[in-house]
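Dear support,

I submitted the protein below through the web form. The confirmation email said the job was done, but the results page showed an empty box. After a refresh the structure appeared. I'm attaching both so you can tell me whether what I see now is the final result or a partial one.
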Amino acid sequence: MPLGITIELLVIGFAVLLISNYLVFYVTRRVTKSNSHLFIKQAKTKAKSIEREAEYILKDAKIKAKEYELQHRQEFDKKLLDLESEATEKLRLMRDEEKELQRERTTIKRLKDEYETKVREAYKTIEKSAGIRVDEAKELLFKRIEEEEQGNILKIVRKYESQAKEEAEKRANYIIAQATTRFAGEFTAERLINTVKLQSDDIKGRIIGKEGRNIKRLEAILGVDIIVDGTPRTITLSSFNLYRRAIAVKTIERLIDDGRIQPARIEEIYEKVVKDFDKELQSDGENVVVELGIGNVHPEILRLIGKLKYRASYGQNALSHSIEVAYLAGIMTAEIGGDEILARRAGLLHDIGKALTHEGGGNHVELGAELCKKYNESEVVINAIYAHHEYEEAETIEVATVCAADKLSAGRPGARREVLENSLKRIKKIEEIALSYNGVETAYAVNAGRELRVIVNAGLLSDDESYKISKRIARDIEKKLDKFPGDILVNVIREKRAKSLARSL
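What the results page shows now:
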C-alpha cells in the first residue's frame, strides 16, 4: 500500500477517534446536567417540607411556653398574696405587742415613781424619828461593817500570804537544789605561799648568790618573799598577790633549768615569763568562755577573765567563784524560764573588776561596770555587776539569779576565810601608802606584811632623802592602819644602774 494512502488513513482514523470522544463527552455532560436539575428540584421540595415542619414545631413550643408562663404566674401571684397576708398579720401582732409594751413601761414608771415617793417619805420619817440623816446612817453602817469584817479580811490576807510564801520557798528551794545538784564545782582555797622543789640543796646556795646578791635581786624584781630554810630541796615563796607569786615560781623554775642564776639573767627570764603569762591569760579567758558557751567576748575582757585566776577574795579563787556563779545562775534561770546564756554571761562577769583592783586600786564594782560599758556589754550584765553588791535593784530574772548564785557560792561552808581577806587588805593598804610618795617606783609587802620593800628612783631621790622617806612611810602606816600585828620594817632601796652596749665589729 502506498505511503501517502497510509498517512491519509491514519489521519482520518485519528480524526474519527477525536470526534467520537467528543461526542461521548458531550452526551455524558448533557445526561449529567439533566440529572442535576432533577436532584436540585427534589432537594428544594424536601427543604420546603422541613421548613413547614419546623414552623409547626415552633408554633407548638410557643403555645406551650405561654401556657407554662401563665401557670407559674398564677402560682407566683397566689404565693405573693399569701406572703402579703402573713406579713400584714405579723405587722398587726407587732403593733399590738408594742402597744402592750408601752402600757407596761408606763405602769413600771408609775410604780417606780410611787416607790421612790414612798422611800423618800420613809427616809423623812426615819430621819425625824432617829435624828440622823440617811447619808450619815449609811456611813455609820458601812464603817461598822468594815470594822467587823476587817479582822476576817486580815485573816484571809495572812492566810494567802502565808500560802504564797510557802509555795515561793518551796519553789526557790527546789530551784537551788536543782542548781547545786546539777553543778558540783571544785572549791579552790588560795594560800599565801608556794613551794619550789629543787633537785638538790646545792641550788639553794646559787639562788642566794654571793653575799645574798641573787636572792635580793629576785625579791626586788619579783615582789615576793623568798624563804630559804632547812627544808630539804625546797624553797618557799610568800606573797599575798597570786599573780606575782605565780610569775615568781615560773621565773625561778626557768632559772634553775637554765643554770645561769645571776642578776642580768634574772631580769631577762622575768621579762620572758611575764610575756608568756600575758598570752596564757588570754588563752585561759578564751577557754572559760568556750566552756560556758556565752558567745563572743572582747579580747581585753578575755585577758581579765584569765587574770581572775590569780585573784582571791576571802581565800576563794575569783575565777573559780565566777565560773561557779555563771553555772548556778544559768541553771536557776533555765528553771524559771529566763535567758540561760545571758545569765551565764552576767554571772561570769559580775566580779570582773577584781582583775583590776591589784593594779590601780579602786572599787571592783565601779571598775567592772566601767569596763563592761566601755566594751558594750548588755545592760543585764552591768545591772548584775551593780546589783550583786546592792548598788542597784535587780531588774531582770537573770540578774536576780546571779545575785542568788553569788551568795550561794560565797556562803557555803568553807568557801571563804575572812581572816585571810583582812590580812590581804592590810598588806595592800601598806603598799598603797608607799606608792603615794613621789619618786617611789615599786613597793612590795613581803614576809606576810611584816616588811615593806620600797624601790625608789635613784635619779630623783638622794640617799638622805631615801632615809627620810622611809621614816615618813613608817609614820603614815602607824596613822592610817588601825591595828597590825608586830612591827613592820620599811626597807627603802635606792639603786642606780649604768648600762652600756658593746657592739661587735
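Response: this is the final, complete result; the empty box was a page-load delay. DSSP finds 15 helices and eight strands in the chain.
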